[in-house]
Design brief:
Beta-Lactamase, 426 residues, rod-shaped, alpha+beta
Length: 426
Amino acid sequence: MITGLVAFVITVYVVVVLGGGVLIGKTSSPSLPLSVLATAIVALAFEPVQARLERAAAELLRGGAPSPYEVLSRFSENVTGSYPTEELPSRMATLLGEGTGAAWAQVWLTVQGELTLAASWPETSEPVTEPPRLAADARDSTGELRRAVSVRHAGALLGVLRLQERPGSPLTSVEERLFTGLAAQAGLVLRLAGLRAELAARHAELLVRADELRLSRERLIETQDAERRRLERDIHDGAQQHLVALAVNLRLAETVAAKSPERAAKVLEAQSEAAREAIDTLTQLSRGIYPRLLADEGMVQALRAALAISPIPVRVEAVDVPRLPSAIEAALYFCCMEAVQNAAKHSLASRVTVTVGTQDGSVRMTVDDDGEGFDVSYAEPGAGLTNMRDRIDAAGGQLQMTSTPGVGTRVDVHVPLSQMPEQRSS
């Protein structure tokens, strides 16, 4: 290319100065006006000639492939065309790679606030998965000879175009301008592709959430069936036997009353104790189903009463917590009891703090202990945590557990008020 520029300068000088000198009859020494004219022509034509020579050299190196200007100048037509939205990043990467003669090219999209690789060219290569790090002069600091430029629209980062230069064949000035020009044109295209990627990611999250809710409902139904069978067994083996015996003895008293009133009186006197035993059995069963204090006084009072006899000290902090629907109160109550029970069994904690309140349109509860903690990435969720999640899912809320070895474990629960039915009065 340098040789061509030198040849261009010499040609202009020969044609204008020497050729013009011959025409005006002055060949003994160069004419000053003609020299000035030649210099002006060289200055004006130097950059266009340089660009043409760079394109010609690049085309020669690519074996006759289209020049970057020919490929990228028709960006809108080539990219949008009739291609489906999901193919746009791949099409852009192909144009970028072929138009600049790069070793490889990539298109990154901003999806949910993070850069995500959307397409790589050529497809047969193993793409570099490390996100680009933009540096000065459209450079990518993640590797040698890497270039990267951001794509923005209305000030928002929509993505990054990235390529790898070939050793010994850096981008020409024309290719650099077209590289940055492509980024300037790609804003709306990447916004469209980014929105589709966002929707796809959200759809995948919703599918996972739907599966979790389905499994949660199935586990709840199984738990309810198991609890129903347990209650049937307890009623049959306990309260029912007391009541059957009471009924038999009352009929016996009725039978003997006419013949032996004294015996009938003794039988009736004995039945008062049997009736009290039946009442006690039913009371114990009702407490196992739903604590009476929870129904009468609400979740906070029920928690304070139940946790007062915990094997480790528990402090319940609550400020202006209203009465909630019974299903919500039961979910939070039993979730809290399960969390405290887990802390007492496994954490070796010296204290547990339960905080309940309303904030940002939600009922929020945290159970925080100062126990040994554990690494949640390696721990399998047990039946207790699964039951807690199922209860909160059924109430329309979310539960998150965090734990740090040597620091403790924290359970965060929040149920949006919009998910609740109408609140009952206290």
